[in-house]
Write a structure and sequence with these properties.
This protein has a seven-stranded mixed beta sheet, with helices on both faces. The longest helix has 22 residues. By secondary structure, it is α/β, with parallel strands linked by helices. The termini are far apart.
Amino acid sequence: MNVLAKTLTGMALSIVLSSSALAAEKLKIGFIVPNPIGEVGWDHELDRGRQAVAEHFGDKAEIQAVDSVGEGPDSTRVMNKMAAQGADVIFLGSFGHMNDGLKLARRHPDIAVIHAGGYLQHDNFATYAVRHYEGAYLAGMAAGYATESGTIGIIAAFPLPEVVGIMNSYVLGAQSVNPNLGDVKVVWMNSWFDPAKNKASAESLVSQGADVIFSLFPGTPSAVAAAEEMGVYVTVTLSDNTRFAPTRHLAAIQVDFRPIYIAKVQEVMDGKFTGNDTFAGIKDDAVGVAGLSPDLADEQREAILAKQEEIRSGAFHPFQGPITDREGKVVVAAGTSLDDGAIKGMNFLVGGIDTTLPN
């Protein structure tokens, strides 16, 4: 074999070995979850997303997950450790992870950071959210059908725009099927995760006459279980909670982060990752109504599911006018609907909600 042939053969072998090494290299993905992973709720759904990534990508991905990571120094430490260990992708599960996550992304432009619920983006820092308000309208319809006292109570985490939007849509859904609905009572928890306060809030609302309660971003099923004990119906965000209230679970706003997670990881693998915002809803299979009670009449269940399909097709928008606020001011004119910016920045309460927002 002449020198040129030997050289070419060596080059070919080198290319094959390099390609094999690249093919064997796994994408390192880290997941940071803010609270303990339970059977239902936010952290449970985040972890279902992680499981879907593991199943979908198999041996192409190496996955690390850390739960119970709150805001502040703990989250910064975990993020930095993942980066130091060579993470290619990091999923952040709390709104409170945003600022530190963005700093990390700017320091490490080679890492794709994907953040839940934030509003800031960067070249390698993407955000995602689901259109909870779409499912909330449907759960509100169920509440409007089921209440006999005409009083619905809501346990809400924080007076943030996303929470306010869910609350407003829920009440609009209830009002759409029940013209005799009274003022909706609200208890602000000012917490994402407080089982004792969640239960106490449910008890407070029932003492005020509520026979349907809505646990809005509870992080815990304690209010759902309390509703079962007290014999009132319950609706809830994030996960089907039927197991905790087998006779009183009315409806759930079921979220599904799996399609979002798989799509973003695929972007990284394809070299097409962008620091954009994903706002996924019913048409994306990222949210929907689940756990509808058999106590609802057949025609009521059919009406709820039909409305879900109208939202999916774009024939109906939960925030289509006319809509008035608590003071009677028209906030969405007839023939119009709110755009995504207005929904994400919602700062008003619709008429019929008995609470106020902080200035």
